[in-house]
Amino acid sequence: MSFAIKEIYVEYQKAPIGLDEKRPRFSWIFSSVEKNMRQSACRILVKKVTPAAQEKIVWDSGKLETGESRGVEYAGEELEACTVYSVSVQVWDAEGNSACEDTCFETGMLNFSAEEEDINRAWEGAQWIAAPRFHVCAQARGVFILETELRLEPGSRRAGVVFGANDFRLLDKNQNEYGLEGENYIRYEINLRALAGKPAQGQAAGNAMPTLDIYRAGYAPGDREDIPFASVPLVPFEREDSSQESTAAQGTGEAEACDSSLITEENAYDFHCLQIEVDGNNAFTYLDGVLVDAVAKQEFFGRTVKGRTLNPRGNNDVLTYPRLNEIGFFAGEGDSACFKYLSVRNMRAPSAEFIRETPEGGLYGREGIFCKKEGIRLAQTESGESCFSLSSAQVTADPSHSSIPMFRTLIRTREDRKPVQARLYITSRGIYECRVNGQDITDRLLAPGNTQYDRRLNYQTYDISDKIGEGDNCVGVTLASGWWSDAQTFTVKNYNFWGDKEAFFAKIVITYDDGSRQVRVSNTRDWSYYGEGPYRYSGFFLGEQTDGRRLGLYEDYSKADFAETGWEQPVTYEPVPIDEYRAMPPGFGRAWPGVNETKPLLLGGYDAPVYVVDSRKACSRTFVDAHTVIYDLGQEMAGVPRIRFQEKEGTRLVIRYGEMLYPDLPEYAAGEGGINLVGRLMVENYRDATSTDVYICAGRKGGEIWQPRFTFHGYRYIEISGADNPPEAEEVESLQYSSVTDFEGSFHSSHELLDRFAENVKWSQRCNFINIPTDCPQRNERMGWAGDTHVFCHTALHNGFLKQFYERNLQAMADLQEPDGQFPEIAPVGGGFGGITYECASIFMTAELYRQYGDKRTITAFYPGLKKYMDYMKDKGLPGRGDMSVVGPLGDWLAPQETDLQLMWNAFYYREAALMAELAAIIGETEDAADFGKLAEEVKDYWNRTFISPEDQRTRNMDGELCDTQCSYVLALEYGVADNREAAASHLLRKTRELGHKVGTGFFGTGLLNMALSKAGYPEDAYKLMLQTAFPSWLYPVTQGATSIWEHWDSYTVEKGFGGYNAMNSFNHYSLGSVLSWMYEWILGIRREEENPGYSHFRLEPCIGDLTYAGGSVSSPYGTIRSSWEKKEGVLIYSCEIPPNTGATLVLPDGQIKELGSGSYCFAC
């Protein structure tokens, strides 16, 4: 047969299971050895299939006279929930030849209601269940409230609490940039010396009063144990007066006397409640419920009150210090004090207590961490209360306890029947891993994925039929924080953004040969919990800590014969509503939104699953010292390592990650505190995302394989510390995670640097397409910034089929749309800043997806929200002097040349209106189309009158001052807002040549720059820009060793190192790589036609530049399109491959125009 159906897709997926779609669409692609293959007709037959293999026809389309092979909508009987359907597709070509292929799909719950009654019915009474206790890793807790009630004994002067002690990063000189390795702690103490006539440090004798003294030891080279880092009077903090701020060790001022001291001679030796709120790098302090220590500052946006900065690196976008670490008590030399308790709780609602140490012990019946500590004893107060008593000592202990939670349930199948089918339906708040009878049930990772959790939550359906046997069976579930809890976002205080516990929701259905069902749901009766497993901690930002000696338990806990010892009953869990929170002053970004005020929809279907898609072994290893080794993978990646160790039992290994090493430059050769940083891991740009794994070796004979399960990192380099036998390079492997499993886009040429650039773009796409499109995969963001997303969308679609991936992101934006219509800058989660250049993403991406795939349903699904957004924009002063101040406006982000913001905003507004007119017309909203068209003309008229100089047609700002940037002309041309396109093109050409064919644009101009030049008739200048290697250019980072796309044009240079961007820097940011689409569309010549959305017909028009050959491919809904050319002995050889059921217009460089059907072709010209 000349053609065949290569693959059938149901709702754009291969044989999906658990599909919540009432009217799924069917698509198929062909393989054909013949040219000009075109479908003329098709027939679709859908049958309901019972577990006993009985079939019933629910839809027979009949023979449809159509050439459409994409998105044919189901039109049969109403689909039933949790049911298997077979699909047969028969297709005829124009000659009457036919081909047939089969597939299947399975529906999910088909419940589209968030009402408790409806969810209860669909899930048959399942409950959200969680651990009855918190699991605590003190080394990873940077946000907490520490509290004690203490009393100094009469005559004593100094006592307090300690936290942040013995941070392992500061005990090893190789794990901090200061080269510190020694005792470290933060101590807050009450100082009553003034009542004895001795003023505290930093106070004049006449101003003597009790103080709060803060000591910081071992955190920075200049720290002192004998001089307080800061000292403030114990008086109410005046928010309008910053005079209380005093940092005695640095001599920045003295505390002033006042009459409102909270500690007087009368109450000096009473119990006082000392509370310290630590939000990463800063802390507020309260005494007896009254704020006594904070910092009031006059900043650009007004006066702010913040916590005192404890971190010597600063308070924002830095490596976070302190963490909770060891905690304890202090009494000064010759002093005695007693403490009723030491409590630590979460800062974010519901502010649950996760540590409480009393003389009776710890939480959950645990033995107290201080019960066997020297220097501390148990005593009683006069009223008979138990307390800790301390004299002339500082005592600390590690409060870490419990592991990430594990759950299991036993299911005994019915003896008189045979199981023929088994399904597991499951979702979680947090991420889960599930095992059945000792086996993993899937190779997908990080399920259920990242969504706006209070609006919609994906569940997954697994066919576990081959894992369920007769008799006893066991299902095990392990939970980790994922995108739900733990450290989240670039605001450290957002710890536990959604909730403080992980939980799961599940239903297991076993179907027997007689059609009967056995159901087991998640509940507190049938499931057990265990909190002493091998995975002591796991979080996306901070890494994973694993005790390899306990891994055997993880391998066995889901086996039916596993002996439950120490297992407990789980509890039900529902997150509480959390109010919105403003981390930035008004005018510089939004508040983080309130969450959990609504119940989420539980939906099955496409959820951007994450898989291991590639791997790399280390290409070298370098010893920093005998026990610290750095491995170079030779490639920036995002995922986890897989390493073979051969160490003694109990050996503690610390594994860190970095994108770069410190270069051999004077500033690093000297280093902070005199330490030589050259060749060491640079981790400053990870900020709060410490990305540190800890593994305790099991000491197995023949070695052991370690691989994290519940986290991921972005990195090129792996550092291993603590190994007596460091692995060889070939024993260190990295696994690449991504939701992009197939890359159809490819590019190769005679230019080595250009090829490497194309690969860099694809690597950054892989790394940043982990469930959602993110800005970066490594630092404490990894978020769906809308600006980054929409500028790269066009390029990404060339590389693979991403329709549902991006529609899922559009849904997250829709879920976060404000009542007034404003779209978010970040989705999921919300918050952020950017203004119209980011908020436009929903409109831009909807139009882009329609042009790529031709699916009107994408438009109709999101159109109401897009229209509501345009209503919101009416009040923003556009066209005109736009008011974007409420969300912190951003222009052409990180451009070498700054473009006027008002010029950009008005250009974006025109583009929004023009696209809305186009989208409205496509779906038949003719009145809206006319209105938006009229608005577009009004904006265009204003833009040209305001931002174009009538004298010379150069761009200017609203005050008539010259703008004249590449970006301003690029937007004028590519957004279609310029009246005089010839003049705009001429000025773009002039500006590009004035810059020496270097790039002057940032995130929003870069992807359009070469397109604008080429369309204007200057492709040779676009080529010069593309092949430029001097800074700033696309190939400059490649010459500096880049293996991915950088955030800055000069994120690193051989001459200047990181150029001062050590913290605000990413080496895996795809935005500036969006020019790859130009390489596909102009060098290879593969271009969509707007009049034929979805590539049903397209254009092939290669632009031959200063290369010997070029070739590659792009993705289309019909299959892969290929194009290549080569110069041979004065002749150009051009080849192409057109997928079946499509056609193309070929325009060769010599002017020949050919209409081609599907097939492979070769031409000489």
Notable traits:
single chain, 1165 residues, alpha+beta, Immunoglobulin-like, Jelly Rolls, 17% helix
The portion of residues assigned to helices is: 10-25%
What name does the CATH topology of the largest domain carry? Glycosyltransferase
**CA radius of gyration:** 32 Å
> What can be said about the biggest beta sheet?
13 strands, antiparallel
Q: Overall mean pLDDT score?
A: 95
**Alpha-beta content class:** alpha+beta
Number of helices: 17
Low-confidence stretches: 242-257
User: How large a portion of the residues is in β-strands, by DSSP E?
Assistant: 25-35%
Enzyme class: hydrolase
Keywords: Hydrolase
EC number: 3.2.1.40
InterPro entries: 6-hairpin_glycosidase_sf, 6hp_glycosidase-like_sf, Alpha_rhamnosid, Bac_rhamnosid6H, Bac_rhamnosid_C, Bac_rhamnosid_N, Ig-like_fold, Rhamnosid_concanavalin
